[in-house]
Design brief:
eight-stranded parallel beta barrel; two-stranded antiparallel ribbon; 10 strands
Length: about 350
């Protein structure tokens, strides 16, 4: 396993990190299975576990807490807040009112007295940066979080938050967690240059593109990944963007074969090759999944392989731009752009 410094924090983390979104109802993973995944990940040298309060409505955090009991200090623990929890209108967002409550709930579920990294899961357009940063700074000073970061923020919001922290003399976001893969490279054009400018650590989620880059999705095969079961529209080949992804996957598979790599090694090696990326978050549901992903821990792609990938999916290109998670709300909701 390789290790890199998380932004400018001085904290060393593994270049592959364990994402726990599949723990619980979402991935149909039991507590025993989750504990086995954590055991195997830590044994392999992974030292960062990332979860969120909304993953299976808190079940993921509870499972992580039980799995790490007795070895809390051996790992970097990260969680997130801001996505809706239940139907109550104020149980979401990045207000001080909610973040204080959400963190206490997360600490209780995790069975710890602090988290190392607390992340705002999505930019909340209804809350000012000063409000959010002030609450996070107070939680940090209280010792309940060590650092805080953003997740899936558009580049201009990352810049704005950095400015607000300086303007109001508050602590700042030290990490960003964006979606990034061979098939979704849009952040190379805007987000990654900004994270490099401000020295932010980057934890890339969905490096296997929701299963597209695992080797399981190929021409002529029935698509039966876990994600395709509850997000079928993302794998419907009558949709042009999905057809484009499958065409790219077939060409990428040929590149991987020629290089003597699995598709997973190619995909994870690509993400960790970018100098702005600190770690790629893997989200296995089973030990077999984890083992195939751990095989990419020391993968270093040659320049020829990286050039071949660029020829298939151009730098800065998203093959499914409509699936981006950092689109300004006014582009999605007409009521926000019309009087």
């Amino acid at each position: 396993m390789q290790y890199r410094t998380l932004g400018r924090t001085g904290v060393q983390i593994s270049t592959l990190a364990l994402g726990a979104m599949n723990f619980g109802k979402i991935g149909r993973t039991t507590q025993d299975e989750a504990t086995a995944l954590v055991d195997a990940a830590l044994e392999a040298g992974i030292n960062l576990i990332d979860t969120a309060d909304m993953y299976s409505q808190g079940q993921s955090e509870e499972m992580v807490g039980k799995a790490i009991a007795g070895r809390r200090d051996d790992l970097v623990l990260a969680t997130k807040a801001a996505m809706p929890i239940g139907e109550e209108r104020n149980h979401r967002g990045a207000s001080r009112r909610w973040l204080v409550t959400a963190l206490e709930d997360s600490l209780r579920r995790l069975g710890v007295d602090h988290v190392d990294l607390y992340q705002i899961h999505r930019w909340d357009p209804g809350t000012s940066d000063e409000e959010t940063l002030s609450a996070l700074t107070d939680l940090q000073r209280a010792g309940k979080i060590r650092y805080f970061g953003s997740s899936t923020f558009p580049a201009h919001r990352i810049v704005q938050a950095q400015w607000a922290a300086r303007e109001h003399r508050l602590s700042r976001y030290v990490t960003e967690q964006p979606s990034y893969s061979v098939l979704q490279r849009g952040i190379e054009a805007h987000v990654l240059p900004v994270t490099e400018e401000y020295g932010l650590g980057v934890l890339a989620w969905s490096p296997l593109a929701s299963g597209w880059l695992t080797g399981a999705v190929r021409e002529g095969r029935e698509i039966s990944t876990n994600r395709s079961a509850f997000m079928p529209e993302r794998f419907d080949l009558t949709i042009p963007s999905n057809r484009a992804r499958l065409d790219a996957v077939e060409r990428l598979a040929a590149v991987a074969d020629e290089a003597g790599l699995t598709m997973i090694q190619l995909a994870l090696g690509f993400v960790t090759a970018h100098p702005a990326v600190t770690s790629a978050l893997i989200g296995p549901r089973t030990l077999d999944h984890l083992r195939t992903q751990l095989a990419a821990a020391d993968t270093v792609l040659s320049h020829d392989v990286l050039d071949a990938i660029d020829a298939i999916v151009a730098p800065g290109t998203d093959l499914a731009p409509h699936e981006k998670h950092d689109t300004p709300p006014a582009l999605l909701d007409p009521s926000l752009r019309r009087r």
